[in-house]
């Protein structure tokens, strides 16, 4: 299937490794001109060369205004942004009494305001050309809270509401906005959480972890011409782990 992404200009945040790298790599394979971003300049440059991305930008997205600045830089380099994938690293673990105010504030800027800044930076150009795709990469913890992932479960749940309300504002202009909620995937983040892999896979009907390239394929489809009638959705990719509706 030709997804109609050849020549489209895409920006994937948090793409030097893990799920972001898998998503950006899939968009490159579909013929999109892809810019990627992460905190480490050395890692993002290496990732850009590795996947064949058009541009690698180093930025700390926990700093207010950083996401907006990255979008404007990519617009200048590529001439615009047709596809935006908002992806941020997982916040620290901890219960409500263990997490500091500073950790809450940094996570709010990165997870929440980063998404708001990104949407506001790309939406005018997408509306003008009457075509655009915005995907917020969140987590299955947004729908099924996980013990210890207090920040992630709290803030990311709100992004589903943001997806619903903002998608309605953009739909008539040919712009879609969807959230993708990945479950357990084979990334470094899983090792950071310290959960034994066999304990996880025993609870997943598919009996395995997801692969980053599989999530990349889902995001590529949501970025495509064929997905023009899909908007305002929060789509889970978790191998059947989540049992609720």
Percent of residues in helices comes to 40-55%
Number of strands: 7
Under CATH at level 1, the class stands as: Alpha Beta
Distance between the termini: 30 Å
CATH fold category name: Rossmann fold
| Number of helices, where a helix is a run of at least 4 consecutive DSSP H or I residues | 8
The strand order across the widest sheet is 3-2-1-4-5-6-7
Assigned CATH superfamily: NAD(P)-binding Rossmann-like Domain
Q: Unreliable runs, pLDDT <50, ≥5 residues?
A: none
As an assembly, this protein is: single chain
Query: What's the architecture, going by CATH?
Result: 3-Layer(aba) Sandwich
CA-based shape:
globular
Q: What would you call the structural class?
A: alpha/beta
Helix and strand pattern = EHEHEHEHEHEHHHE
Q: What percentage of the residues does DSSP assign to strands (E)?
A: 15-25%
Biggest β-sheet, characterized? 7 strands, parallel
């Amino acid at each position: 299937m030709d997804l109609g992404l050849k020549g489209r200009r895409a920006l994937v945040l948090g793409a030097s490794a893990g799920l972001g790298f898998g998503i950006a790599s899939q968009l490159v394979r579909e013929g999109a001109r892809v810019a990627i971003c992460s905190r480490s300049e050395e890692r993002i440059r290496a990732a850009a060369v590795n996947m064949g991305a058009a541009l690698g930008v180093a930025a700390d997205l926990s700093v207010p205004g950083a996401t907006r600045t990255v979008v404007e830089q990519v617009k200048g380099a590529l001439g615009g942004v047709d596809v935006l994938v908002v992806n941020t690293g997982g916040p620290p673990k901890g219960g409500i009494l263990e997490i500091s105010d500073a950790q809450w504030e940094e996570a709010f800027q990165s997870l929440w305001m980063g998404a708001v800044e990104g949407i506001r930076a790309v939406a005018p150009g997408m509306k003008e050309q009457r075509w655009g795709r915005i995907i917020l990469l969140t987590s299955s913890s947004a729908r099924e809270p996980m013990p210890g992932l207090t920040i992630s479960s709290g803030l990311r749940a709100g992004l589903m509401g943001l997806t619903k309300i903002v998608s309605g504002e953009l739909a008539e202009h040919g712009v879609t906005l969807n959230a993708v909620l990945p479950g357990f995937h084979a990334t470094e983040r899983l090792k950071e959480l310290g959960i034994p892999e066999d304990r996880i896979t025993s609870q997943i009907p598919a009996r395995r972890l997801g692969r980053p390239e599989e999530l990349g394929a889902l995001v590529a489809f949501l970025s495509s011409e064929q997905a023009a009638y899909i908007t305002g959705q929060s789509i889970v990719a978790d191998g059947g782990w989540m049992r609720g509706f």
